[in-house]
Design a protein that fits this description.
The chain is of the alpha/beta class. It has 4 domains: about 1-95 and about 225-245, 3-Layer(aba) Sandwich (Rossmann fold), CATH 3.40.50.720; about 105-220, Methylglyoxal synthase-like domain (Rossmann fold, 3-Layer(aba) Sandwich); about 255-420, 2-Layer Sandwich (CbiD-like), CATH 3.30.2110; about 425-585, no CATH class. Helices cover about 35% and strands about 20% of the residues. The strands form 7 sheets. Strands 3-2-1-4-5-12 form a 6-stranded parallel beta sheet, sandwiched between helices. It has a 6-stranded parallel beta sheet with strand order 6-11-10-7-8-9, with helices on both faces. Helix 7 (about 180-185) packs across helix 8, helix 14 (about 425-440) runs parallel beside helix 16 and helix 17 (about 495-505) packs across helix 21 (about 555-570). The longest helix is centred in the middle third of the chain and has 18 residues, at about 255-275. It is globular, with a radius of gyration of 30 Å.
Length: about 600
């Protein structure tokens, strides 16, 4: 069992991550004002001291604590660390992302230090964006100077101000304009805020103060006690939960080939610049999270170095799982980072992938990741050769030949993380295929659930290039939306009857987890198409949609098909609002209707 301590943006994200497991967990907040949407989380409220938290963890057999509370909740952080240590429960800190300290901000170690600096500056008026709980901490300043506090507009805030002796007339409330508008209105000589991170709006406050030329005082976040395992995003949190609470998720996540190539490239350049072989490396994925991967092999030459990473795709049935991604980095007299084709990495021969023809098939996001890491270490020219031994053979099990990628696999990944049986990854693969279809000049896109239905529909369009035929799997709605986004004016969709009856009922994702066929709706369509009443009633007894081919009388089939396709159009046509959608129903024998 997992206990999440939240009340913050990070807390909500932690709930979302835990919810994906489909297992029960606990989410605790001090108050009851935060709305928490969760299918599996039990929301408890009220502050817990060490004794109460210890009792709670014992009662509910807590195996992991996730501290996603506000960075300035010092008492809570201390309590959690004590309980974790006492009960030997692993402790994760879901930390915010913090911008670097810049010299145009006055950084204060605590509120006493801030008051001292404010007094020294001679500031006679202050706008405090530090929250109602900090009114007592700044009392030595506001007793002698004008001070405005921005707080949440609720009775509790006003009562806390009064209790501290602060005049409620000097309170302003959230929701009454932006930071910039508030600073302009108040006209304070200084602004104070907390180092609350990106999710706390720190950069917006800093930008507003900078634009108006107002000194900004920032109280540094307190240091965490020892014992925390720090993560900075949802992917890192899930991977730590997978590690610390085995079995909480049915399937493990992994890393993309792009992430592996990024880690290998950074390790190679680090080895080249330091002269030291690397056994592990830290690197960033696109959302800014930092991960560490082990280096399998590291070799250093005169003006080059090479490092390898073994790909772990988690529990996803990825054909590249376990393969070695090797990157050689060489110094170059030509400025910039240049990608070269290594063994087992494909070469692009068709447009539409966002990579120039003739270039190695290292996709745009992995290129960006690699360039980001390498240019942070070295500002000279570099040649980067990515290789995957055995990749040419692996590529035959992928869509690469159809996409015009020859001699190997692609180095791919938009997030850096492989999510098992990921909807996102499948839809992204569909997008890549549709982009190639567009790039090769096909005026029509033909989408089908798989190779079988495609084989039947191809006979209608013998002159279309092979790239014009794309499998949607179960993602009918997403595929049509992609076609609309890319400007296709003619789309043909082949449907077997199992997916057709689901689509007709409004299921744009026909995966079984999204629902089963609606027999009541099928019976309604049968009635609308004039089927005898006994046939309509027999629909209640079918287990597979394909039984409709023989159940519905031959004389009623044309009208039933017409009704079925009509309802499919009802749910799909608006997704292709700039084009024409043709829907073809395919029988088990390959007949087209």
């Amino acid at each position: 069992m997992i206990l999440i301590l939240g009340g913050t943006t990070e807390g909500r994200m932690a709930v979302k991550v835990a919810d994906e497991a489909g297992r029960r967990f606990w989410y605790s907040t001090r108050g009851d004002l935060q709305q928490v949407d969760s299918q599996n989380g039990v929301h408890v409220t009220g502050a817990m001291d060490a004794e109460a938290m210890t009792a709670f963890c014992r009662e509910h057999e807590i195996r992991l604590i996730v501290d996603a509370a506000h960075p300035f909740a010092e008492r809570l952080h201390t309590t959690v660390a004590e309980v974790s240590n006492y009960l030997s429960i692993p402790l994760i800190r879901y930390e915010r992302t913090y911008p670097e300290h810049t010299n145009d901000i006055i950084w204060c170690k605590d509120y006493d230090d801030a008051i001292k600096r404010l007094e020294q500056s001679g500031a006679e008026s202050l706008l405090a964006l530090t929250g109602v709980q900090t009114i007592p901490a700044l009392k030595d300043y506001w007793e002698n100077h004008k001070c405005i506090f921005r707080v949440l507009e609720r009775e509790e805030s006003v009562n806390l101000a009064r209790k501290a002796g602060f005049n409620p007339d000097n309170l302003v409330f959230y929701g009454n304009g932006s930071d910039l508008e508030l600073m302009r209105e108040v006209k304070a000589q200084a602004v104070i805020t907390k180092e609350s991170g990106l999710s706390g709006g720190f950069m917006d406050k800093a930008a507003a103060a900078r634009e108006l030329g107002i000194p900004l005082y920032a109280v540094c976040r307190p240091l965490l006690p020892d014992g925390f395992i720090t993560v900075t995003g949802e992917h890192g949190l899930r991977r730590e939960i997978e590690r610390l609470v085995p079995g909480f998720y049915e399937l493990r996540t992994g890393f993309t080939t792009g992430a592996c190539a990024t880690a290998a490239a950074k390790a190679a350049l680090t080895a080249l610049l330091t002269g030291e072989e690397q056994d592990s490396v830290k690197f960033s994925i696109p959302d800014g999270e930092v991960f560490t991967l082990p280096i399998q092999e590291c070799v250093i030459g005169k003006d080059w170095a090479q490092a390898s990473v073994v790909k772990d795709a988690g529990d996803d049935p990825d054909v590249t799982n376990g393969c070695t991604v090797s990157v050689k980095v060489e110094l170059s007299h030509e400025p910039g980072v240049h990608f070269l084709q290594g063994e087992g990495v494909g070469r692009v021969t068709l447009p539409g992938l966002g990579i120039p023809i003739g270039e190695p098939a290292v996709n745009p996001v992995p290129r960006m990741m690699i360039e980001h890491e390498l240019t942070a270490l070295y500002d000279g020219g570099l040649n980067v050769t990515v290789a995957v031994p055995g990749g040419k053979e692996i590529a035959q099990k992928t869509f690469n030949p159809k996409l015009g990628i020859e001699d190997g696999i692609s180095i791919i990944g938009t997030s850096g993380i492989v999510r098992p049986f990921s909807d996102e990854a499948f839809v992204e693969a569909i997008r890549r295929e549709v982009e190639v279809a567009k790039a090769v000049g096909s005026q029509r896109l033909v989408i089908n659930s798989g190779a079988r239905s495609e084989r039947f529909v191809k006979s209608l369009y013998p002159d279309l290039p092979p790239q014009a035929f794309v499998h949607y799997g179960n993602y009918i709605g997403d595929t049509i939306k992609i076609a609309q986004e890319l400007g296709f004016r003619e789309v043909t969709m082949g449907l077997m009857i199992g997916k057709a009856v689901k689509l007709a009922a409004g299921m744009l994702d026909t995966h079984s987890r999204e629902g089963v066929m609606d027999k009541d709706f099928i019976r309604q369509m049968a009635q609308e198409s004039g089927c005898p009443e006994n046939i309509c009633e027999s629909i209640n007894n079918i287990t597979l949609a394909r039984e409709l081919w023989t159940l519905i009388p031959k004389q009623n089939l044309p009208d039933f098909f017409k009704t079925l396709i009509h309802y499919c159009h009802t749910h799909c046509d608006h997704l292709l609002c700039s084009g024409i959608l043709t829907i073809i129903l395919i029988s088990e024998e390959g007949n087209l209707y």
